[in-house]
Design a protein that fits this description.
The protein is an alpha/beta fold and 461 residues long. The protein is 34% helix and 21% strand. It has 3 domains: 124 residues, Cobalamin-binding domain (Rossmann fold, 3-Layer(aba) Sandwich); 241 residues, Alpha-Beta Horseshoe (pyruvate-formate lyase- activating enzyme), CATH 3.80.30; 56 residues, Nucleic acid-binding proteins (OB fold (Dihydrolipoamide Acetyltransferase, E2P)), CATH 2.40.50.140. It contains 14 helices and 19 strands. The chain starts with 12 loop residues before the first strand and ends in a 13-residue tail after the last strand. The structure holds S-adenosyl-L-homocysteine, iron/sulfur cluster (SF4) and FE3-S4 cluster.
Length: 461
């Protein structure tokens, strides 16, 4: 099942991948690219010239779902022009809808459930050979991909995403993830370390470890390895400059993880810790397992241990039954924590979830108004926090030329702030000290400096 085809059966075909949703979907898309890459498929950024199109979907909110329908609608034209084109749909919507996607869209050839990516090679072959249309939603993941699939260069990127665990057991009442990603499973630590090593060998300097709730990494592994131990092992990979991870659950944020931010030099001082709401009543209805005060307490303790830590979070407005008072509690928590950045969402009912059955839904005008009010407050805080960076010298991992180009390069501070500055191509992948000279709402402007205070750039590479 896992052996690649002999070379002489490969021929060059092109693959177009479109990814929606979270970074775990990005990781799966990269996996699929590598598996089909070993079959001779080359990636194209032009959908029109593709032999295979893979659409990786998300069903966490209503909005990304609608994007999928409009994308699939647009593919009809391509299929008419090239009947040999194969269209694959994967990700959480594929898992949620299964065969229904085949029934609704006659352009779709293969539906891959969230645990089916490892089987894509065989499935695609079957579709090609028999002309049939398939939906495959296995209960179990395929065994770990063989090295010859995974070891391929991790694209021309400085950062590699590595999924360390799949699924989720938390069942927050609004969330579809446990239903579409299944029960929580941790990948073997040896394999994660190996993937980090391969990534570094292909030029990567930073890894982001992914899971819905990384704090509970290790359950079910024998011998058990905690998340903090895993971080320690990944840090040993020679040549790796930075480690980040996402997402943590507040109820499971331990003292030992807080300490890891100061004890592990490669671990960046940035934590993404969704709080969802500042109202205890709403948090209880969400089944989150903590109160607003307990959340704040953890943050105070974390800041005590690691004062330079940056914080980001997810929050939503308009959960069923959310009153004006509940919403004010959310704003209050934001004011008291002062997050460096925040992702905010409007609640939407999702299939299978308990909250979808809750009464007392908030009307959409109120939800939109609350979202803008919340975003206005956060925009002010983010800008204030960015402005407070002016004058500081931060170590920036240089990622590449900035989109606007004109000699500008871009990278991130350890706290995950984007910095643009004049630089040189040779710096890509290096840690460069940069003085922050200006601040905007989404980025900072910097000037590279040498340790001695002289212009790093003028000083040559
Ligand atoms: N595992 C992560 C989050 C995964 S989903 C965690 O527990 O924090 C990413 C974010 O989408 C969530 O944090 C939540 O804010 C938002 N989200 C999830 N379900 C939602 C829904 N039904 N409506 C609106 N936002 C939702
Ligand atoms: Fe969803 Fe909650 Fe699991 Fe996050 S922890 S994926 S919000 S059920
Ligand atoms: Fe979306 Fe599935 Fe990720 S629902 S957020 S793609 S786990």
């Amino acid at each position: 099942m896992t052996q690649p085809l002999p070379k002489d059966r490969t021929r060059s075909r092109s693959l177009y991948v479109h990814t929606l949703g979270c970074q775990m979907n990005e990781y799966d898309s990269l996996r699929l690219r590598r598996i089909l890459g070993a079959e001779g498929y080359t990636s194209t950024s032009h959908m029109e010239e593709a032999d295979v199109i893979f659409l990786n979907t998300c069903s966490v909110r209503e909005k990304p779902e609608q994007k999928v329908y409009s994308f699939l609608g647009r593919l009809r034209r391509l299929k008419t022009r090239n009947p040999a084109l194969k269209i694959l749909v994967g990700g959480c919507m594929a898992q949620q809808l299964g065969r229904q996607l085949l029934d609704r869209f006659d352009t779709v050839d293969l539906v891959l459930g969230t645990r089916a990516v490892g089987y894509v090679r065989e499935l695609l072959e079957r579709v090609r050979e028999t002309g049939s249309r398939l939906a495959y939603l296995p209960e179990e993941e395929a065994p770990e991909d063989p090295p010859c699939w995974t070891q391929a260069p991790a694209a021309d990127s400085i950062t590699a995403l590595i999924t360390i665990m799949q699924g989720c057991d938390n069942f927050c009442t609004y969330c579809i993830v446990p239903y579409v990603r299944g029960r929580e499973r941790s990948r073997p630590p040896e394999r994660i370390v190996l993937e980090a090593k391969w990534a570094v060998e292909s030029g990567v300097r930073e890894v982001v470890l992914l899971g819905q709730n990384v704090n509970s990494y290790g359950h079910g592994l024998s011998p058990r390895v905690s998340f903090v131990e895993l971080l320690g092992r990944v840090q040993e990979v020679p040549g790796l400059s930075r480690i980040r991870f996402t997402t943590s659950h507040p109820k499971d944020l331990t003292e030992s993880l807080m300490k890891a931010f100061v004890e592990l030099p490669a671990l960046c001082p940035h934590l993404h810790l969704p709080f969802q709401s500042g109202s205890d009543r709403v948090l209880r209805a969400m089944n989150r397992g903590y109160t607003a005060a307990q959340y704040a307490q953890k943050i105070y303790r974390l800041r005590e241990i690691c004062p330079e830590i940056a914080l980001s979070a997810d929050v939503m407005v308009g959960f069923p039954g959310e009153t004006e008072k509940d919403f004010q509690d959310t704003l209050e928590l934001m004011e008291s924590i002062r997050f460096d950045s925040l992702f905010s969402f409007i609640y939407s009912d999702r299939p299978f979830t308990r909250a979808a059955q809750f009464g007392d839904k908030v009307d959409s005008a109120t939800k939109s108004r609350r979202l803008s009010q919340l975003q206005e407050l956060q925009a002010r805080i983010t800008l204030e926090k960015n402005r407070a960076e002016v004058g500081a010298v931060r170590e920036v991992l240089v990622e590449g030329e900035s989109k606007a180009s004109n000699g500008q390069f871009t990278g991130r501070t350890p706290q995950n702030r984007v910095v643009n500055f004049v630089g040189s191509r040779q710096w890509i992948g290096r840690l460069i000290p940069v003085r922050i000279v200006d601040a905007y709402s989404h980025s900072l402007k910097g000037e590279a400096v040498s340790r001695g205070g002289e212009g790093f750039f003028q000083g040559g590479d």
